[in-house]
């Protein structure tokens, strides 16, 4: 408690110093100047959202045995329509620095269930799932803004570890789908309930979070810790707490450099308490990430490098695989380390056409390379599934008729080790991201 009071006190002193210097506050805590008072008053209510609609033609099999018996599934193909993410956002500025934000996400079209009377089965009642997908409350927070350098956010918030979690709108990456590496090994979009302290001073922005830890029962081979933030219960277990941070620097015009990280124990953060023989097992998750974004001279370049370590992965693997059938664990091998790296570069071809430039339309020709491995390093007793590591190369276009709408086309190929089949795909999508003051 003393440490929290010290942090808040230091933040308030920082705010007082900047207030005397005449710095303007963030929305919700701003004191308008005489000029601003003459302008129309902005609404306190903000509505927005983003969404994606996608078609993919995949020139590889989607059979669940495609890695176990690769030769038998060499010539498979399949196609899919998908709504990866459709999100509604709502925010409100209460005044005096207090604001509210929420975000509801429908993944893959949401879910539809119904109870029907089946005429062909004696008129019995039957519950059916008519559409797959998920509906999730990704954000729900109350914020107090003291000054640009110091703000407190309480509630359900995004964990900005890695490039994709911090910048996950479909207008913030070139691919039809989110970057595959981070989207595989991390929760994405990663959201937890907790407290966040954040602010910006000059060319620096920081954020520090205290949140609930991950659940090691949910870890797996292809997703590493990806599912560890989810909870199959009506609440999130918080036997173990975790910390996360992000620091952004904007010193160079058009360039953002960022580092982020996470640390927390996961093994005892489960509903069923392990026996006393596991008291020394921590399942500590450590993540370090670097990412950048460059936007200048009609070029956009983005990149990321992420490395994660899990202690006691051999014990967690054995414990999960010995669980009961009712356990929420996928009962799979878990690696002691995972890695994801990627870079994409695009050039605006319309920048060379005066008519298109005047209309503010953009057409980016881009290329992207990824390498990721959810089983990058394993303990000797843990089986390494080598198809979890792959290279991915993609080329495509992004057309922006206006700033908030993008049409995408992409050809990609996942390059696996020789014993497996490569995974080429052709994808098309349309997406938007918009925020509107009412």
Descriptive report:
The chain has 438 residues and is mainly beta. 11% of the residues lie in helices and 48% in strands. It has six helices and 19 strands. The chain has helices at residues 2-20, 34-38, 163-166, 180-185, 313-321, 354-358; strands at residues 45-58, 78-82, 86-95, 98-107, 112-118, 124-131, 134-147, 150-158, 191-201, 204-212, 241-249, 255-265, 284-296, 299-310, 337-348, 362-377, 389-402, 405-415, 423-437. Strands 1-3-4-7-8-9-10-11-12-13-14-15-16-17-18-19 form a 16-stranded antiparallel beta barrel. A two-stranded antiparallel ribbon has the order 5-6. The longest helix is centred in the N-terminal third of the chain and has 19 residues, at 2-20. The chain is globular and about 65 Å long. The two termini are 40 Å apart. Residues 1-10 and 16-38 have low confidence and may be disordered.
Concise synopsis of the structure shown:
The chain is mostly beta strands and 438 residues long. It is built from 6 helices and 19 strands.
Helix count from the secondary structure assignment: 6
Biggest sheet: strands side by side, in what order? 1-3-4-7-8-9-10-11-12-13-14-15-16-17-18-19
State the order of secondary-structure elements, H for helix, E for strand.
Answer: HHEEEEEEEEHHEEEEEEHEHEEEE
**Separation of the first and last Cα atoms:** 40 Å
Sequence stretches where pLDDT stays below 50 over 5 or more residues: 1-10, 16-38
Could you tell me the number of beta strands?
Answer: 19
Mean pLDDT: 86
Radius of gyration: 24 Å
Shape: globular
Main beta-sheet strand count, sense and barrel state: 16 strands, antiparallel, barrel
| Helix fraction bin | 10-25%
SS-derived structural category: mainly beta
Strand content: over 45%
